[in-house]
Amino acid sequence: MKKTWIVFWTVFVVVLSGFFYLFWDFWKDTTQSDGERAKAAFTAYTTKWKEQKFSDMYEQLSLHTKKTISKEEFVSRYQNIYGGVEAKAIVVEPMYNGDVMPGEDGQINFHYRLTMETFVEPISFTGKAKLVKETQNDLEDWYIHWNPTFIFPEMKEGDKVRANTMYPRRGEITDRAGRPLATERVVIDIGINPGQWSQTSQTGKMAVSKLLQIPLDDLTSKVQATTSKSAKFIRIATLPQDDARIKQLEKTEGLQLHKKKVRYYPYQDATAHLVGYVGAINQEEYEKRKDQGYKTSDMIGKSGLEQIFEEKLRGSAGGRIVITDAEGTEKKTVVERLAKHGQPLALTIDAEVQQTIYQELKNEAGTAAAISPKTGQILALVNSPSFDPNAFVLGMSATEWKQLNENPQKPLLNRFARGFAPGSTFKPITAAIGLGTGAITPADSIHVRGLHWQKDVSWGGYEVTRVSDYGGPVNLEKALVYSDNIYFAKAALSIGEEPFVKKSELLGFHEALPIPYPLEKSKLYNKGFTNEIQLADSGYGQGEVTMTPLHLALVYSAFSNDGNIVNPSLLQGDKKDGYWKTNVIPADVASTVKQYLIQVMEDPRGTGRGARVPGIRMAGKTGTAELKQKKGELGLENGWYAVFNVDDPRLLVTMMIEDVRGRGGSHVLDARIKRIFTKALKN
């Protein structure tokens, strides 16, 4: 019985509590002032406004407002305007000031401050909201009298908002003489007007297909893939303004032609890998840069200097947000910011030298670098085969991309940024290290009979091979003139591993070059020397030795500068005092090696004699680097030249051409080097 009473009183207390809270809520609602209820309603409205819940905002509008604008129109208007100005970080702050009472008209007014970020600049303004008390859906509450000033204070019914991006002009890239390497030009977008195209005859469509070399099925697919019924222009191609096909296309029914400015590369293939190109920003790039003001419609540097100096070249976009009347006449500028054009990039490159070298390499797989041996200014960085970067700007078909990407000669590969076995062009470096350390002297000679040599039986079946047996002793001068592998293999062993490594590192091996372009580091080895065979092979530029063409040129500059390596520069205005590497080769050693390199070019048996230019004294070294996977097989051979003019040195060129086996080895380069120096120094 006692338990029953306890349960009864417990239930009674719970029920009584429920009635109490229901009564309290009713009493509270009926006693809350109109001002407090209006505040609550407007606070709820501004919260939805911040969160861009436009559909929910509409539900709080007065009956009068709902008669003037439908829910669909209201939501669409906010979405279009806020989307157009890229509104974000919206903050709407009601400005309550003490107790609020309805006016004589029964309405309550609240002021508010709105701030938001836009694609141009942040916007801030104050406005006034009018609330009325009325019943909607059996609920009496305070509702908002909405009008266009809620969007912008100056707006009236029928007005529109227009947002325009003001695009910056991308900075030009020029060579040392101001010749443009990357600039802009006018092109023509060719587009289909779907409505008119459907009326075009089959003959007319076939003519367009033939002119643009686009299959008719592809044109049809582009039209059918466009779901928008209002589409008036479907781009199918972009052509240069002076393209002969423009006149005929202008007369074709169903087509429209629009002019626009795009990036242009006047030297085309010759500078493609150095300058790079721009293209439409992809999703990954956009995600990384959207906080920097990039849009999904932007162009961005994709490779080369265009990519490396993207921030400098791009500039920053401006924009305008204006209010217009129904006819489009501007009434009020809400906010405006002028575009900041990109900065120009002036290079030390000589476009004519670049073009000349490229023409000599064209149709071969190879690379080259050219510098001023006294100043270190980079005159050319050349890659072949190459591609026309303008094709990426204008738009490349899937077929064109496949042909480029699958080309066995790899035109997209940037060879001047990579390291290659330098072959015999490395021998002067071994000579300089050997003389500098005292491991060899100019008078020392070797007398090895035959074409093969090994240190002892510990080498097993491995032998160093040379091209010719000269029938007598070979000293350093003859070894360079004849390019004797055995001499330099023995020299490397005489130097020893540790001094060989230390002295090579003083020349910049395993070190990034001090220029704003990413090149592979030149290397003596991958993971150290494994045995003395590798050391011997390294003495004549084989083993695991790799060098970029530019680094090889820089090291050779020491032979023109008393053993100092010039400081390389790619950008004009880069003030680099002194040398990159000082006293890395003793001055007398540098002079001695230079005299021997002159003989390489002038001696009747010198390997460089075929590249001599009458009237120009030249010093240099040829090289043939053999790339093979295992002993006994014939590997790929790359032909090299490293050469500079001696009197008033103005040009130092390193050049490599791949796959010269059976074509004369490095002599494939003879005539090319001769023409380059003739044109650059004599013309």
UniProtKB/TrEMBL annotation:
Ranges for domain Penicillin-binding protein dimerisation come to 167-333
Q: What is its main location?
A: membrane
InterPro entries found in the cross-reference section: Beta-lactam/transpept, Beta-lactam/transpept-like, MecA_N, NTF2-like_dom_sf, PBP_dimer, PBP_dimer_sf, PCN-bd_Tpept
Location within or outside the cell: Membrane
- Asked if Transmembrane is a keyword of the record, the answer is yes
- List the record's Gene Ontology CC terms alphabetically: plasma membrane
Molecular-function GO term, any one: penicillin binding
Coiled-coil annotation: which residues? none
Q: Which residues cross the membrane?
A: 6-24
Q: Which keywords, in A-to-Z order, does the entry hold?
A: Membrane, Transmembrane, Transmembrane helix
Q: Penicillin-binding protein transpeptidase domain location, by residue?
A: 366-676
One Pfam family cited in the UniProt record for this chain? Transpeptidase
Q: Where is the NTF2-like N-terminal transpeptidase domain?
A: 38-159
The record's Gene Ontology biological-process terms are: cell wall organization; response to antibiotic
The organism's superkingdom is given as Bacteria
Does Nucleus count among this protein's keywords? Answer: no
What family name appears in the similarity comment? Belongs to the transpeptidase family.
Protein name as catalogued: Penicillin binding protein
Annotated source species: Brevibacillus brevis (strain 47 / JCM 6285 / NBRC 100599)
